[in-house]
Amino acid sequence: MLYYNIIILGVYMKSRKEKWQVAILEILKTSEKPMSAYDILGELRNDNPRIAPPTIYRTLSDLVEKGRAHRLESLNAYIACKNHKHDESAVITICEDCGAVHEYVATDVLKALSNVIAHSGFATLRHVIELQGVCENCGFEQISV
Hints:
By secondary structure, the protein is of the alpha+beta class. The protein folds into two domains: about 1-80, Winged helix-like DNA-binding domain superfamily/Winged helix DNA-binding domain (Arc Repressor Mutant, subunit A), CATH 1.10.10.10; about 85-145, Ferric-uptake regulator, C-terminal dimerisarion domain (Dna Ligase, domain 1), CATH 3.30.1490.190. The chain has helices at about 1-30, 35-45, 55-65, 105-115, and strands at about 70, 75-80, 90-95, 100-105, 130-135. It has a three-stranded mixed sheet, with no helix packed on it. Strands 1-2 form a two-stranded antiparallel ribbon. Helix 1 (about 1-30) packs across helix 3 (about 55-65) and helix 2 (about 35-45) crosses helix 3.
């Protein structure tokens, strides 16, 4: 009987975990701007008043690990992954004027970085490449490099 209850609990926990992943991913996909964990918590609390921050952080961590979301280190915020090639590294551009965020695939950049550190004895765990500047809509031509 105990074994059966553990199996049922495991299925329940997995389905609950998947429920949060789907809900949070949907929020990220429909958001026009990167969202912090507390922004997401605020969205979910309307229908789930008992949800707590650790649930959000665990779920976001799982989504990032699976390549379904990106954590923007400089903003301490998250966006949904728009590229379905999850084994590729993304380059994220962030406009400092309007906050627009775009994702690009950059395999050559990752290869170049890997070559730079290949003999350093350093092992990368994840790749986060963020570029901050001004987008075309905000007048990028005014910026000189």
